[in-house]
Amino acid sequence: MKKTNLILIAILLILAACQREPKKKVNVDWTTFRIAYDWFGKQQDSAFYYFNQVTAQSRDSLQVAMAYSNMAKIQYRAGDFYGAQESLVSSLKFLNEHHKTDHATLASNYNDLGLIRADLDDQNGAIDFYRQNLRFAQDTSLKDLTWNNIAYAYQQKKEYDQAIAIYQRLLNKERQENADYARALTNLATAQWLRNPSFKAAPPLLKALRIRQKAKDDWGQNSSFAHLADYYRSIKPDSALGYAKSMYEIAKRLESPDDQLQALGKLVDLSPVKHTKIYFGQFKELNDSLQTARNAAKNQFALIRYKVEKSKADNLKLQKDITDKKYQLIRQNIRFYGALSAFIFITIFALLWYGKRKRQQEQDKQLAVTETREKASKKVHDTLANDAYLIMKRLQNDVVLDKNWLLYHVKDLYIRARDISYDIIQRPEKDFYLKISALLKSFSTDDTRVSVVGNNKDLWDRVDPVHQFELKYIIQELMVNMQKHSEAHNVILKFEVQDNRCLLTYFDDGIGLNKDFSQKNGLTNTGNRINAIGGVLTFDTGIEKGLQISLSFPIK
Question: Residue 266: inside a domain, yes or no?
């Protein structure tokens, strides 16, 4: 043990000596970032691609963080909230709270995280992120906007007193009737009306609208029309309808599909019956188109990241082969003195732990099966067999059979038999798609990136609960085989619904299948599970590199 400690100390001293060498200033190239920014707002998939190139190639941490931040904005606008959240978390990893140059990006990231949590109806989480934003926001307007967002979160929680206090403070700060004043006035009047439905909100709402019209603030007018339509809905439906129409027209001019959908929803509620069908048809067509576009964007983002990560892995392998020669001796010493001892220790520990864990899992599995069988057997014997025998004897001996007595006892026997089957049959799991996400995420490492497309709640709601249980272990077996044998750096799983079946496509960039491969090798249990759910498993051996597997199974 003492020798091992001495070796580790020597390694740390060598590393420290290397770190004391003066660092050369890196000349940051912003060419790719500028190309991405030029596409930003014009062609989102192109902008996303080039920002992703920056994250794979740049050596400047701030530039990488800004690229991830902009990728998150693109994903958020496309409705990919979870993807945007993941990109923002990646951005935060490259930022330092103690560096003032990072504060603007930190503020932006925390504000966007707050918006995402608010859209996911997590108002408490949104407030926490907004307050993190206030720690780094330097611009007064940005701080005021953040306080407005905090107040709106309280308003969504129906904590109107706290929201009103913040809106009032923001309104009192404004010395002129500008866009910020109009926003604070609108939000304050709305919160006061929501707290007290008898509050006369029309005068301040109309005043805010006039300010926005004078300033030709289309986004502000859109907001004013929405609030006025809501306010007049119950007291002056005709006025509410007029404001809803104005909102729809300005939303179309702004090319904002979300605001158009909101306006159409109001028009469906407020319009005469003869117009309702027209507005509902427009609402459905726009909503379907928007969802299709957003789903396509999510898939496109996942594929772009997969391709860039694969290219990045290839470049890292190439760079490893041409490493600077002046560090070769240090690496050799570290490998010889450190890696050998660490490898031996970790290998022995891992083998012992794995063997123990595997034995424990097998024991637990067998014990669970045995307990379930014993429990079911005991219940059948104790609660069903004797009563069934009683009914049988009554049928044999009674000359005149009491039909009501027989119906009562047979029904009771059926109910208890059903209860026993319920104890055995797998119960449906809530939010099963989150469990699948967590399972797949557990196989993601520094060397292997796992990407998932199409794993959502709507899909798994259509899968039989018993089949869910089997599919979880099928997917787990595929991932375990990947981790053991494939040597893949990138793995992607794609779920698609095709008529009344679900198609799960798995592919990786690993070494692929060897010549002696048989579909039964290592997949016996998996094959049994697939047959049990009526599934079909096929291997695509036509690709040049990597492995592609398709699993098709029926859904509701």
Answer: yes
The strand pairing partners of 310, in sequence order, are: none
Query: Domain tally for the chain?
Result: 3
> Which one of 244, 271, 298 terminates a domain?
271
CB 194 within 8 A of CB 160: yes
- Cα 382-385-391 angle, rounded to 5 deg: 130
Total-model pTM: 0.50
Asked if 411 and 446 sit in the same domain, the reply is no
Indicate the residue type of 423: D
DSSP state of 510: S
pLDDT tens across 380-413, in order? Answer: 655 566 567 667 766 776 767 677 777 777 777 7
Give the whole-angstrom CA distance, residue 399 versus residue 276: 69
CA distance 453 to 190: 40
User: Left (φ > 0), alpha (ψ -120 to 50) or beta: where does 493 sit?
Assistant: beta
Longest dimension (CA), the chain: 106
Look up the domain containing 390 and give its range.
323-424
- Structure-token pair, residue 392: 């049988």
Residue 62 half-sphere exposure, CB side, CA atoms within 13 Å? 14
496 Cβ neighbours under 8 A, 6+ residues apart: 454, 502, 503, 505
Region of 207 on the Ramachandran plot (φ > 0 left; ψ -120 to 50 alpha; else beta): alpha
Cβ proximity of 433 and 456 under 8 Å: yes
